[in-house]
Amino acid sequence: MSDPIFHNFSSAPTHVAPFSHAVESDGWIQITGQMPTDPNDDSAPLPEGVEAQTRRVMDNLIIVLEGLGLGLEHVLSTRVYITEFKRDYEDMNNTYKSYFPADRRPARTCIGVTGLARDALVEIDMVAKRPA
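Above: the chain sequence. Below: its structure as tokens.
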């Protein structure tokens, strides 16, 4: 196993905790869960509602993927955390699935949680793999 590479990108949102945006080893990349924060203004209010927050989270993940020279087609799995599971699950899913072709959706786990940083409604992390 090669030594891990710890990636941080100035174009990605400001860290909300002590972490790297992504960690890579042997072409496998763990991408830290992204929040619905504005990558250009960390102090801006979060978008209203789970659909807008899911879009912002996915767009933030795309920024990290682009920093790695990758795209959503390289994502193998995701984990979605939502604070209002019963209320927001369907709306989050409708927004989330718009980012992937129906025949190329990553494996996924979705977890209801009691709270997220910045009082966000949704957070998503990813596992990606570089092409051989």
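Residues 50-67 form the longest helix (18 residues).
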